[in-house]
Design brief:
By secondary structure, the chain is an alpha+beta fold. It is built from eight helices and 20 strands. The protein has two domains: 216 residues, Rossmann fold (3-Layer(aba) Sandwich), CATH 3.40.50; 136 residues, Beta Barrel (OB fold (Dihydrolipoamide Acetyltransferase, E2P)). The termini are far apart.
């Protein structure tokens, strides 16, 4: 079986009308995760890459060859997903033989390739079994094997873990990650599950519907989001609307509707006396439960970085590795807060007053989007 080693380069790709073009590259031994909130839009990108749907603009390069106009069979991109099931009337072994025979591979060589890939994917002893007798994990392994047996330079996976039960999903994520590195696979994986993208993807292309918002390593999307939709949709940040009082040394001072003031780093395009969206992640918010009711109010922190916001604890849930708290501000806005279990004071329960604060460097203020008005 030929080695898996290639590079996919996509330039100025347009898959649907009214969306801006986007570009990316994926090398051997890497996985780019396409992460979004609508699976159909991600599937459309997958279909364009493998030639099952025409692209509206841009080009797809595999190993330096422009394959944009090629049909799926000669596209050099293999696709696997739940929309492309195994042939129910064929055994696992004959499911793997089928694409090789279609490509004119001699029977003996095809059989040898099928056995190699079955051993690689942990399918020994299942060659005679038909898909209906396989469990969800075995179906995934067989589907990967059917793609890999043709040794395509690029493999595109469309939500591969969706059929798996939760207890097997994590194990198969790790398995796929090891397989990509061990076999130098060049992989693009579409998924709506952030954990899939974080565990398997070396980089992540984040989408809102059909619109591409940002591509980068997970740290980039968490700590340097390109817009408020990345901050809230990917990083799970809270969003508050306010007006910029002034900006000094890239730090914006923002007044909230109830008159309270917070600080955040100013994103590009932010202007003084303009509306903005302040994004701050739940784990970046410090929480204080004063022992005395008179301690409540809008107070400054010791370092002067930000004002403290009076709030009331609405709900608290123990999530195992952290405590998830829902806080309501005086203007009715709610913030999610995550704190380590050991930092929660005994006796804290819903209805308890609290003070919230964050350093300016832990939040970002983005220009207010017109469509949100």
């Amino acid at each position: 079986m030929p080695p898996f080693s290639s590079r996919l380069v996509v330039r100025n790709l347009v898959t649907t009308a009214d969306t801006a073009p986007f570009s990316f590259g994926v090398g051997a031994g890497e996985c780019l995760a396409l992460l979004g909130n609508r699976g159909a839009d991600l599937s459309a990108v997958a279909d364009v890459l493998v030639g099952q749907r025409p692209l509206l603009d841009g080009n797809v390069m595999v190993g330096g060859i422009d394959v944009s106009g090629r049909p799926p069979l000669t596209r050099m991109c293999g696709l696997w997903g739940a929309r492309d099931p195994l042939f129910a009337h064929l055994t696992v072994f004959h499911n793997l033989l089928f694409p090789l025979r279609v490509r004119g591979i001699a029977r003996a060589e095809a059989a040898d390739r099928a056995r190699q890939v079955m051993a690689l994917l942990g399918l020994e002893g299942l060659g005679h079994v038909r898909p209906a007798a396989l469990d969800a994990e075995q179906v995934l392994r067989a589907g990967l094997a059917r793609v890999m047996v043709c040794a395509p330079p690029v493999i595109v996976l469309d939500d591969p873990f969706a059929p798996l039960p939760a207890d097997r999903r994590g194990m198969m994520r790790n398995f796929l990650g090891r397989l990509i590195r061990a076999r130098d696979l060049c992989v693009v994986m579409a998924t709506c599950d952030r954990d899939d993208a974080l565990v398997v993807g070396d980089r992540i292309a984040f989408f809102d519907g059909a619109e591409h918002l940002q591509t980068g390593a997970a740290a980039d999307l968490f700590d340097r989001p390109a817009c408020d939709r990345v901050a809230t949709g990917f990083a799970g940040a809270n969003a508050l609307t306010g007006r910029v009082s002034y900006i000094e040394e890239d730090v914006a001072v923002i007044r909230l509707p109830d008159g309270l003031t917070v600080q955040a780093m100013a994103a590009p395009g932010l202007a003084e006396d303009s509306l903005c969206t302040v994004c701050v992640r739940p784990d970046r918010i410090a929480t204080l439960f004063p022992a005395r009711p008179g301690a409540m109010g809008s107070l400054a922190t010791d370092d002067g970085e930000s004002a403290m916001l009076p709030a009331v604890l609405v709900d608290m849930r123990h999530m195992g590795t952290y405590i998830r708290m829902r806080m309501r501000l005086s203007n009715g806005d709610e913030l999610l807060v995550r704190r380590p279990p050991l930092q929660i004071v005994c006796g804290v329960e819903p209805g308890r007053p609290a003070l919230l604060a964050w350093q300016a460097g832990q939040a970002i203020a983005f220009p207010f989007r017109h469509e949100m008005r």
